[in-house]
Amino acid sequence: MKIAVSGASGKTGFRIAEEALKKRFEVRLITRKGSVLPHSLKSCEKEELSLFNNSELDQSLSGVDTLIIATGARPNIDLTGPAKVDAVAVSNQVESCKRVGVKRIILVSSLCVGKLFHPLNLFGLILLWKKVGEDKVINSGIDWTIIRPGGLNESEENLQNQNILYTQKNSQEEGSIPRRLVAKACIEALNTSTAIGKIIEITSSEENKSLTMKKAIEGFNNISNTILEV
Ligand SMILES: NC(=O)c1ccc[n+]([C@@H]2O[C@H](COP(=O)([O-])OP(=O)(O)OC[C@H]3O[C@@H](n4cnc5c(N)ncnc54)[C@H](OP(=O)(O)O)[C@@H]3O)[C@@H](O)[C@H]2O)c1
Q1: Domain count of the fold of the chain
Q2: 45-48 and 163-167: which strand pairing?
């Protein structure tokens, strides 16, 4: 299976590519021109392009089975970044996937997406623009999974003691998670058929019970059933 990772030069994106390589997937890195990639990804195919150029996008995604989207506006004084990157560029990527026949999309989004009154929105209403991007993925007609992490950190220490709390959408509002675990969760989603069509929120801590994504999703269904029965 060939996986493309967009935003592969980002702090989550490069880790997703590394985790995909560990699982022996063929990996194609999608970045804008001039992005810097770590040495660990030197064996991957690379495509440098503008996410706002449809023909370049189509070319970069041809032959790809799954696209993992890890792009995101970098903090900047230009407050239009979230609209451009988290909404329009995600939308462009989804449209390109439809044109070239990509079969699966995994989007790295964020906790609290869609909330208006939230301090993160001081950066160009980012949580609202991310909702536009999420909706585009959800309505794509392509098998999708949205991973919404809490606050991201760079920790690579002690990860074996960190367990992920996986919940359904709009269940968590705070908490953090190392980017490495987000990357692992993206690859786990790829191998979990019940993750298709789900928004999965993730944070981590040592106190959480150790669960696979598959087991956690079975719990989601039980909760929905309980609500329906009431
Ligand atoms: N920071 C947090 O605590 C947090 C929490 C929850 C969710 N998230 C979300 O999680 C995702 C990953 O976050 P991160 O902090 O790991 O990412 P990051 O390091 O900021 O990387 C962002 C990636 O997007 C690319 N990008 C930005 N603007 C672009 C543009 N105009 N055209 C093409 N590519 C562009 C960057 O390319 P360059 O390398 O060329 O700049 C980079 O590859 C993002 O969507 C972020 O919003 C973040």
Answers
A1: 1
A2: unpaired
